[in-house]
Design a protein that fits this description.
Length: 208
Amino acid sequence: MARIRQPKKVKEPVRLRMKDLSDGSKSLYLDIYRNGKRTYEYLKMYLIPETDENARRRNKATMNAANAIKSKRIIEMTNGEAGIENEKEKVFLLDWMQTYKENQEKRGKKDENQIKVAIRIIEDYAGKKVTLDQIDKAFCQGYIDYLMMEYRPRGKRVSNFTLKNYYRVLNSALNAAVRAELMRSNPFDKIDKSDKIRLPESKRSYMT
């Protein structure tokens, strides 16, 4: 009886790989092979040692975002050859916020607590199922309005200085999503300064 040949497994043109770092974390990067040439794209995303359930959740969110970028690159390569316009991958906003927080920590930034609070605010404002492709000018203006008019931790209004920090967190995270090509643009850029959170002018005293 003739042996039936198994179909060859098609190799993915883009693979998600990891590089071990000295602190025990892993750096994620894409191994891209196209037209006989290999290139690498470092994602500036990191997996941390899974010492507890929180670390496992954070790594899962990071992997979701990294795999979304990988899928996007494959679609870009395939559609580019076929002349088809690319579509953006769906990534949950809260997953991206966790990835952004981890990347900030890895870069030595000291805004972890602000990001944690902002993530809770975003979840209260929009829930867990909002994806990056659903974020538009109305969503961003609504977030600002929520901070100004509804956000009341322990029943008290917080200062505009603190609220502006929470606005900056989401704004910076969306800018990072644009750089990662998960969004075309940051909708906050379309909002007039007069509609954003404003700080009172500081009073200055001068020596005479």
